[in-house]
Every structure is written in C-alpha cells, then in structure tokens.
Design brief:
The protein has one domain: Barstar-like (Barnase, Chain D, 2-Layer Sandwich). It is built from three helices and three strands. The protein has helices at 23-33, 44-53, 71-91, and strands at residues 11-16, 59-64, 94-99. The protein has a three-stranded parallel beta sheet with strand order 1-2-3, covered by helices on one side. Helix 2 runs parallel beside helix 3 (71-91). The N and C termini lie far apart (30 Å).
Length: 100
C-alpha cells in the first residue's frame, strides 16, 4: 500500500543526534521530533512499538550527526538505526537515510 505513494506524500523527519550523550537524550529527541505519545517508554522496545504503531506514516527518517558522537553514544545510535532499518525492510513504510 505505502509503496504506491509518491515521495511528496511521505512525512519527513530529521533527527540530529550530534548533541545526544545518553540513551535518554536519544529517546527524548525522537519522542519530540517523531511526535510519540506522552507515555513513550524511552527504550528500544518502545521505539519499535511507536514506529510500527504510533508514527505518522509513511515517513522518511533522516539521521544526522552520528559521526560527531563518542564511542558509547555512537554505538547506541547504531542500535537505533538498526531498528529503523529492520522496520524499513519488514514493513516498507519508512525509509531511513543516514547523513553522517
């Protein structure tokens, strides 16, 4: 169904992770930028649930700023990106673009 929609009908969300240092920083940013419900659990399981159930879809998710992160935040950003990409492959209603 979503594959047939043209690009201008897709939502566009930009997540700039350059200032994120903790998992809470990442989840707070996503909660606000992706307009998650107030009860968002701020963990990776809750991220999956929100992407597959509560987000405005279809959507492009553009991730920026990960190259400026130190080792631990970078590793967490990679985990988040892998969830977005898994949803992209499994369902097709999001497209992930990583602009390091």
């Amino acid at each position: 169904m979503f594959e047939r929609l043209n690009a201008e009908k897709w939502e566009h969300f930009i997540l700039n992770y350059s200032e994120c240092r903790t998992s809470d920083d990442f989840h707070t940013l996503m909660m606000h930028k992706l307009d998650f419900m107030p009860g968002y659990g701020k963990n990776l399981d809750a991220l999956w649930d929100c992407i597959t159930g509560d987000m405005y879809l279809p959507a492009y998710i553009i991730i920026q700023g990960i190259d400026s992160l130190s080792k631990e935040p970078y590793a967490y950003a990679e985990r988040i990106i892998s969830i977005f990409k898994e949803v992209e492959i499994k369902y097709g209603f999001i497209r992930v673009i990583v602009d390091k």
